[in-house]
Amino acid sequence: MLKILGRTSSLNVRKVLWTCDELGLAYEREDWGAGYASTKDPAFLALNPNALVPVILDEHGPLWESNTICRYLASRHDIGQALLPNEPRARAGVEQWMDWQATELNTAWRYAFAGLVRRMPGFDDPEQIAASVRAWNAAMTVLERQLDRTGAFAAGEAFTLADIVLGVSVHRWAASPIDRDMLPAVAAYYVRLRGRAAFGPWALDEVP
């Protein structure tokens, strides 16, 4: 059976869990990371030398990097190709937004979230927090324009993997104690995502 290593308070672990639930995959999960088993444990480092969650284990061995894991699971188990199309241009459209989430969007919110929610030492500079919040809202405005254009989901009319990885980030933006810009298309998108049964268990309150 598929095994997932990582705590549910991790945004990146939630991506994988939501993907599994959309695909109807059975899995076992073990808590690893902050507050649980240490990812610096030699046994974990043998699976992921970066000491980060999530890691999955199946008959082919370990795999890490959350977006890569989501792509792998969809490619292997999504018979209808609904989450990740095989056609090159359609697939690239999905992966474009997945990569944007992992780079531009996540980079924007990292300092503010670490300071305001995680309360991590070294992330308490008010000016840097304010700059991170501005960058976060600016990135979300990029998503707002895309959703306004499609009228539905990130890559077009259909729900895809892009919406899973973006959805957990939109939830973090909506739940964090920051001043948010008024983004009606994002707000409507968030309602659509929360209507999916597979998202419900992972639309959790953020855990410090």
From TrEMBL:
Transmembrane segments: none annotated. Residues 87-208 form the GST C-terminal domain. Gene3D superfamilies: 1.20.1050.10, Glutaredoxin (3.40.30.10). Residues 1-81 form the GST N-terminal domain. PROSITE patterns: GST_CTER (PS50405), GST_NTER (PS50404). InterPro entries: Glutathione-S-Trfase_C-like, Glutathione-S-Trfase_C_sf, Glutathione_S-Trfase, Glutathione_S-Trfase_N, Thioredoxin-like_sf. This is Glutathione S-transferase.
